[in-house]
Design brief:
mainly alpha; 146 residues; 92% helix; 0% strand; single chain
Length: 146
């Protein structure tokens, strides 16, 4: 009975140790992503404002890898590539939404231009009808007084 209880206690303790190791790995991975995003923004900003052709020729991905490995030397190149792809996917997802919105805005602007042209044509036709009605009313009034 005591052996069974001890075996159960040992299993529970082992699972807690495994769980804490997994949680630690998750927290460390979260830290990699957080720092990776900061590095991504720095690299993006540096390439956006670079002044020379040589700076533009350097690969943004290589620069990102270099900075992330400098910050976390324990990472492998595969880990860095995975983190970079994860961050790029997250950032590009937001860009896709912006592009979808810009397509929608372009469509709305085109529709608005068509509606403005229709309004102009209808206003012209209304002016012609009003002037015709005014002429007809004046003619009828003159014939009635004559």
């Amino acid at each position: 009975m005591i052996r069974t209880a001890l075996k159960l206690i040992i299993k529970v303790l082992e699972s807690k140790l495994i769980k804490s190791g997994v949680e630690e790995a998750i927290l460390k991975n979260k830290n990699y992503i957080t720092v990776g995003k900061a590095i991504w923004n720095i690299v993006d900003e540096n390439f956006r404002i670079s002044k020379t052709v040589e700076e533009k020729v350097l690969s943004k991905a290589d620069k990102f890898d270099e900075l992330l490995l400098a910050k976390f030397p324990e990472l492998t190149k595969e880990d860095v590539a995975e983190i970079r792809q994860s961050i790029a996917g997250e950032i590009n997802q937001g860009k896709a939404a912006i592009l979808d919105n810009s397509a929608l805005i372009n469509q709305l602007q085109a529709d608005n231009a068509i509606l403005k042209e229709d309004l102009r044509l209808l206003t012209d036709q209304l002016s012609k009808v009003q002037s015709l009605v005014a002429v007809t009313t004046n003619t009828d009034a003159q014939q009635a007084t004559a």
